[in-house]
Design goal:
482 residues; Beta-lactamase; nine-stranded antiparallel sheet; two-stranded antiparallel ribbon; 13 strands; disordered N terminus
C-alpha cells in the first residue's frame, strides 16, 4: 500500500508536468523563419533583415491573423513593404501593398496635425476655451473650461466614450452633435491627469468644423492628407474595396463607420500611413507643419497611467512617447477596432519607423513580436508595446501551474485523508471562481484579455476550469474512514 501511494505521489505530478509542457509547446511560437511575401518567397532587403522572427506566416497562422501589411522606414524614407496573408478569407483574395484599412486610432495623430495646422496658421488658439469656437453644440454651463490642447493630450477629463457605436456606411446614424450629446461625460477636472478619450477627439472634430465653417473630412483632405501625399486616405467613406476585417473569433467583419471621425474614422493604406510617418520625422520635406509644430506634437505633456503605462511613458499631442534604452525618444500610436488593428512607431531623431496594418482584431501579439525584432535592429531593448508578449509567457506559466495544481488536488482527494472544514470550504469557493470565470469570459463580446491572448486565453480558461474541478473534488470527496 505504501509503495502504491509513493508511486502515485511521483507519477501523477510528473504526468501533470509533462502534460503542461506539451500544452506549453503546442501554444508557443514556432521557430524563427524568414519573412515571406504572399507567394511564399523570402522578402529581400531591409525588411527581411530587420523583421524576421515570429512575423512569418506560421506565427500569423498560430494567432489566426488573416493578413497584414508592414512598411519599414530608414533614414526618413520607406525602404521596404511586405503584404502578408489574405485580404479576404471568404474569397481567398490575397493581401496587397495598396490594400485599404480602417486605421482606427492612428486617426488621432493625423487629426492632431489638422488642429496644429489651424493653430500654426492663426485660425485656432490651442489654449483658449473650446466654447469660443463651438456653435452647434456645447457642454453644459457647469462644465469647466476645456482647451484644444487638453483635448489633444487626453487631459480634458472626458470619459473614453462609446467605441461600439458602429454603423453600416449607408445606414442612418446619429449626427456628430447628437452623438456627442449622448456620449460626453466628464470624469475628472480638466488639466489634472491623462484619461484616454475617443469622445475628446470627436469633440475636437466639432471644434475644427465650427472654427473653419467646413466639413472635417474636406478640411483634413485639403490641408493635411493631400499635401502629405496620402492619396488614398480619407475620413469619409468612399466605397472603395477594403481588406475585409476579422473579429476576435476570426469571423469576417464588413466595413462600418462611427458617428465621429476625429478619433478613429480614417481609412488609409499602409503607404498612406508611411507617408504621414515620414513627414513626422526630423528633416522631413513637408510644408504642412513647421518643425517646431511637429516637435510640439511629439513633446510629452503628461505621464501615462493605467494599462497604457505599460507601453508608454508619456503622451504629447496626439502621440504616445517613450524613451528608448539608448536615450532616444520614440513616438507612436496604435489602433484597435472591431475587425482591424494598426500600429505606427517612429524614432524622429534618426528617421527610423515601422507601420503595421492588419485586418484582424487578434493581431496584438504578432505586432508585439514584430516590434521586438524591429527594436533589436535599432540596437535597443524592446519597445514598450513588445511587452504584450509578457502576457503570453505569464499565461503559459499559469497553464502549467494550473494543470500541476489540478493533478495534486485530485491526488489529495483520492487519498481521502482528513481535511479541516475551513480548507474544504475555501477550496470549494476558489473552485467555483476558477470554473465560472472562463464561462463568463466566453460569453462576453470583448475583453482586453482576448486581444492580448487571442490564441492562448482558451487554453488558460480550460486549465483554470480543470484546476477548479480538482479543488472541487478535494472539497467534496468525503474523507475515508479507517
Amino acid at each position: 500500500m505504501v509503495r502504491r501511494v509513493m508511486t502515485t505521489a511521483f507519477f501523477v505530478p510528473a504526468t501533470a508536468i509533462l502534460v503542461g509542457i506539451v500544452a506549453l509547446y503546442a501554444i508557443s511560437p514556432g521557430p524563427p523563419d524568414p519573412l515571406r511575401d504572399t507567394e511564399g518567397n523570402v522578402i529581400p532587403g531591409s525588411l527581411s533583415e530587420h523583421v524576421t522572427i515570429q512575423v512569418a506566416i506560421d506565427r500569423m497562422d498560430r494567432d489566426d491573423v488573416p493578413g497584414m501589411v508592414i512598411v519599414l522606414l530608414r533614414a526618413g524614407e520607406p525602404v521596404a513593404t511586405a503584404a502578408l496573408g489574405l485580404a479576404d478569407r471568404t474569397t481567398g483574395r490575397a493581401m496587397t501593398e495598396d490594400a485599404l484599412f480602417r486605421t482606427e486610432s492612428i486617426s488621432k495623430p493625423v487629426t492632431a496635425w489638422g488642429a496644429m495646422r489651424l493653430a500654426q496658421t492663426g485660425r485656432l488658439d490651442l489654449d483658449a476655451p473650446i466654447t469660443a469656437c463651438l456653435t452647434r453644440w456645447q457642454p453644459s454651463e457647469t462644465t469647466p473650461d476645456i482647451t484644444v490642447r487638453q483635448l489633444l493630450s487626453h487631459t480634458a477629463g472626458i470619459g473614453q466614450g462609446d467605441f461600439a457605436a458602429r454603423y453600416a456606411p449607408a445606414a442612418l446614424r446619429p449626427g456628430l452633435t447628437e452623438h456627442l450629446a449622448g456620449d460626453f461625460r466628464m470624469i475628472a477636472t480638466p488639466g489634472t491627469a491623462f484619461a484616454y478619450s475617443n469622445t475628446g477627439y470627436n469633440l475636437l472634430e466639432l471644434v475644427i468644423e465650427d472654427c473653419t465653417g467646413e466639413d472635417f473630412g474636406a478640411f483634413m483632405a485639403r490641408e493635411v492628407l493631400r499635401p502629405l501625399g496620402m492619396s488614398s486616405a480619407s475620413y469619409d467613406w468612399t466605397d472603395a474595396v477594403m481588406a475585409m476585417g476579422h473579429d476576435l473569433h476570426g469571423l469576417p467583419v464588413t466595413p462600418y463607420v462611427y458617428p465621429g471621425r476625429g478619433s478613429g474614422g480614417l481609412f488609409a493604406t499602409a503607404g498612406d500611413v508611411a507617408r504621414f510617418a515620414a513627414a513626422s520625422l526630423s528633416g522631413a520635406d513637408q510644408r504642412v507643419l513647421a518643425p517646431a509644430s511637429v516637435a510640439a506634437l511629439h513633446s510629452p505633456r503628461n505621464e501615462v497611467s493605467g494599462l497604457f503605462g505599460y507601453a508608454a511613458g508619456g503622451y504629447g499631442l496626439g502621440h504616445f512617447t517613450e524613451t528608448l534604452s539608448d536615450g532616444r525618444t520614440a513616438v507612436w500610436h496604435g489602433g484597435q477596432g472591431y475587425g482591424w488593428m494598426s500600429h505606427m512607431h517612429l524614432v524622429p531623431e534618426t528617421g527610423d519607423g515601422i507601420i503595421i496594418l492588419s485586418n484582424s482584431q487578434r493581431a496584438w501579439p504578432v505586432f508585439a513580436a514584430i516590434l521586438r525584432d524591429w527594436s533589436g535592429s535599432l540596437g535597443v531593448a524592446p519597445v514598450g508595446m513588445a511587452r504584450v508578449l509578457w502576457a503570453e509567457t505569464a499565461a503559459r506559466t499559469a497553464i502549467v501551474l494550473a494543470l500541476v495544481g489540478a493533478t495534486l488536488t485530485f491526488w489529495i482527494a483520492h487519498l481521502g485523508r482528513p481535511r479541516p472544514r475551513v480548507v474544504r470550504v475555501g477550496a470549494g469557493g476558489i473552485a467555483v471562481a476558477l470554473i465560472v470565470w472562463p464561462l463568463w469570459a466566453a460569453a462576453q463580446d470583448y475583453l482586453f484579455l482576448f486581444s492580448i491572448l487571442p490564441g492562448v486565453w482558451p487554453w488558460l480558461g480550460a486549465a483554470s476550469a480543470v484546476a477548479g474541478l480538482g479543488l472541487g473534488t478535494m472539497a467534496l470527496v468525503p474523507v475515508r474512514r479507517r
